Amino acid sequence: MLKQLQIRNYIIIDKLEINFSNGMNIVTGETGAGKSIILGALNLILGERADTGVLVDKEKKCVIEGIFDPGMAGEVQEFLESNELDLLPEITVRREIATNGKSRAFINDTPVNLSQLQQLSSLLVDLHQQFDTLQLGNTGFQIHVLDALASNGRFLNEYRSAFAEWQQAKKMLEQLKAQQVQSEKESDYNQFQYDELAAADFKENELEDIDESLKLLTHSEGIKAALAKAYNTLEEGEQPLVQQLKSMINGLHSYSNYHKQLPELVDRLSAAQVELQDVASELEHISNDIQYDPEKVEALSDRLSLGYKLQKKHGVQSTNELLLLQKELEERLQNVLQIQQDIDKQETATDDLFRKTEALAAKITQARRKQIGPFEKKVQELLAQVGMPNAVFKVAFEKKSLDVNGADAVDFLFDANKSGQFKPVNKVASGGELSRLMLCIKSLVAQRMNLPTLIFDEIDTGISGEAARQVGIIMKTLAANRQVVCITHQPQIAGRADAHFFVYKEVAGDKVTTGLRQLSIDERITAIAKMLSGEKPTAAALENAREMVQH
C-alpha cells in the first residue's frame, strides 16, 4: 500500500505531504484546486516522463517521493532481488527533476532507470495503467480477466513454458529448412568440385614430390656427368685418389715403428681411404639409378600442371590443402544428406510439442469458457446497481491460432440500451460507462488477482444519487482487503471514506499554491454537506451528510 506521498516544487505545489490510510482514501476539492496535479505527481514516481515545465521555482529541483509497504507481495521481493536493490520493510521511490530538465529516479536510494520504475510501480499501484478503461477493449486484458476468474495461473505458466519450447522448435525447424535450401543450391557446384579433386586422386605431398623428381630428371645428364667424373677421380682415373692413398699408407706403414705419431696418421689415412671407397660406391649407385625418361617427364609435368591449376583455382599452396578442401567438400555433401534426417527428426519433435501445447491450451479454454456465463451475469447485476439498468454486457469467445495467451479470441461487447446491437465496449460505451464497467469488473476480479493499491480518478463522472451510492458501496467493499484511493465529486462516495483529504488553493503574496489536509469527522460532515447543497449547506444537507459519514 501507499503509506505516504511527499511533493516538493511541482507545478503549483510548493510542499505537500499526504499520509494515506490502508482502507478507503477519498480526495475531494473544488474543480481546479489541484486534485489532478497530485495525481500527476504520483504518476512521476510510477515512471511517467517529465519536463522542466513542472517546476514552480526554476532555481530548485522538483522532488516526488512515495513510501510503500509491499506487504506479503512476493513479486516485489523478486523484483528487488533480481535488480540488486535493498530489501527493506518499506520501499521508498523518489523522482527528482533538476533545473536543467534532467530527471533521476531512485528505489531505496539506489539509482534506477524508468523501465525499472515502471516495472515496480505496476506491482505496487494500479493507477489506470495496467487496468486502464481503454484496456477494456484490449484482448490481452480481457483474457487476463477470465484467467483470473478461472484461477488459470498454474495452467498458464505450464502452457507458456510449452508454447515457448514449441516456438523454439519451430524456429530450429525453419533454420534447418533454410539451411537445406541453401545447401541444395550449393550442392551441384560442391559435387563438381569434389569430383574434380577425387578424379585427380592426389596423395599427401604428391605435388611437392613430383616437383623434386622433375628437377632431378631435367638435370639428369649433368648430374650423371658430375657423378661419373667424381667416381673416376676416386676409382678409375690415371691416378685414382683411392690408389694414391693406398700407396701413401703402404709407404708410411713401413716406417711407423720409427716415429710415435706415424701409426696414428696411418690409421687416419686408412679411414679416409675406406670412406672415399664408400663415397665412390655411392656415387656409382646414384649414377646407375638416374635415367632420363622423356615419357616419365611428360607424365609428371602433366600431373604437376593439373595440381597447380587446382591450387590456383582454390587459392591454396600445397597438395595437403587440396586434400583438406576435398575432405570439406565431402562433408558438405554428406551434410546435405544428413540435414533431411535432421529435418525429419525436428519435425517430429515440433509436432509433439505442438500437440502438448494444444492440449494445455484446451484445458485453459475449458476453464475460461466455464466462467463466461457467471461473469456476464454478475457484471449485469453490478451494471444495474451502478445506474445502468438498460446496459447489457456480453463476452464473445472464439477459437484462434495458438499464441502466448492460448487459443482463444475474447472480446467484451456492450449494448447500452438493450437494442440487441452488441459492439466492442471501447467503440460504443461513453467514458463514464467505461469507468463504471471497469469498476464492476475490478470488483469481481480483485479477490482472484493480486491487484495493488487501486486509484480511481473521478470514476463517478456522469452519475449521481442511488448509482453513486452503489459505486461507493462497491468501492468500500474493495477497500476491505486492499487500499483504495479515489478522487471524487460525489458525496455518496466521499461518505464511505476511512480517510478524507481535502484539496484547496491558497494565495501567499503573489503566489497561488495547492494545499491539502485530512479532515476530521466534523469537517467531513461539513465538506460532504457542501457537496450536497452548495457553499452554505442547509440543516437538512448537514443531517444527510452526518448520516452518510456515520453509516
TrEMBL record:
<keyword id="KW-0234">DNA repair</keyword>
<keyword id="KW-0067">ATP-binding</keyword>
<dbReference type="InterPro" id="IPR003395">
    <property type="entry name" value="RecF/RecN/SMC_N"/>
</dbReference>
<feature type="domain" description="RecF/RecN/SMC N-terminal">
    <location>
        <begin position="1"/>
        <end position="506"/>
    </location>
</feature>
<keyword id="KW-0547">Nucleotide-binding</keyword>
<feature type="coiled-coil region">
    <location>
        <begin position="156"/>
        <end position="186"/>
    </location>
</feature>
<dbReference type="GO" id="GO:0005524">
    <property type="term" value="F:ATP binding"/>
</dbReference>
<dbReference type="InterPro" id="IPR004604">
    <property type="entry name" value="DNA_recomb/repair_RecN"/>
</dbReference>
<comment type="function">
    <text>May be involved in recombinational repair of damaged DNA.</text>
</comment>
<dbReference type="InterPro" id="IPR027417">
    <property type="entry name" value="P-loop_NTPase"/>
</dbReference>
<keyword id="KW-0175">Coiled coil</keyword>
<protein>
    <recommendedName>
        <fullName>DNA repair protein RecN</fullName>
    </recommendedName>
</protein>
<dbReference type="Pfam" id="PF02463">
    <property type="entry name" value="SMC_N"/>
</dbReference>
<keyword id="KW-0227">DNA damage</keyword>
<comment type="similarity">
    <text>Belongs to the RecN family.</text>
</comment>
<dbReference type="GO" id="GO:0009432">
    <property type="term" value="P:SOS response"/>
</dbReference>
<dbReference type="GO" id="GO:0043590">
    <property type="term" value="C:bacterial nucleoid"/>
</dbReference>
<dbReference type="GO" id="GO:0006310">
    <property type="term" value="P:DNA recombination"/>
</dbReference>
<dbReference type="GO" id="GO:0006281">
    <property type="term" value="P:DNA repair"/>
</dbReference>
